[in-house]
Amino acid sequence: MQFLWAFIVGGLICVIGQLLMDGAKLTPAHTMSTLVVAGAVADAFGLYDPLVKFAGAGASVPITSFGNSLVHGALTELEKEGWIGVITGIFDLTAAGISSAIIFSFLAALVVRPKG
């Protein structure tokens, strides 16, 4: 049953993104930014963690989870370190994702040669 809910929730997030591109005529970059901000706002109100517990990968894999990680890390470190924790907390939870994106992008660039 958990797989079904992950599929449904992840699919709904993707449908929202597609509707933003098709209906609101947003570019993919604007859509991605909107979804990141939506994940950040949902975490600020305490709504994203229950969604992750309910849907698992359906909520933790889409781009909205990146916004969730940014705010969650900032708020966690704010409680521990004060205002300087807002900056350091953002990098603490998201460093692995950003680092892996850079590494895999570099490796893909070595293998795939763009035409042009």
Give your account of this protein's structure.
- This protein is globular.
- The protein is mainly alpha-helical and 116 residues long.
- Helix content is 83%, strand content 0%.
- Helix 1 (2-22) crosses helix 2 (28-44), helix 2 (28-44) packs across helix 5 and helix 5 (64-81) packs antiparallel against helix 6.
- It starts with a helix and ends in a 5-residue tail after the last helix.
- The chain has helices spanning 2-22, 28-44, 48-55, 57-60, 64-81, 84-111.
- The model has no long low-confidence stretch (mean pLDDT 86).
- It has one domain (2-111).
- Keywords: Membrane, Transmembrane, Transmembrane helix.
Descriptive keywords:
mainly alpha; 116 residues; 83% helix; 0% strand; globular
Total number of strands: 0
Distance between the termini: 47 Å
Helix content percent band = over 70%
Q: Sum up the overall morphology in one term.
A: globular
Spatial extent as radius of gyration = 16 Å
Strand content: under 5%
Unreliable stretches (pLDDT < 50, length at least 5) are none
Structural class: mainly alpha
Q: Quick check: average pLDDT? A: 86
* Oligomeric nature of the chains: single chain
| Number of discrete helical segments | 6
Give the count of structural domains.
1
Biggest beta sheet attributes: none
Order of helices and strands: HHHHHH
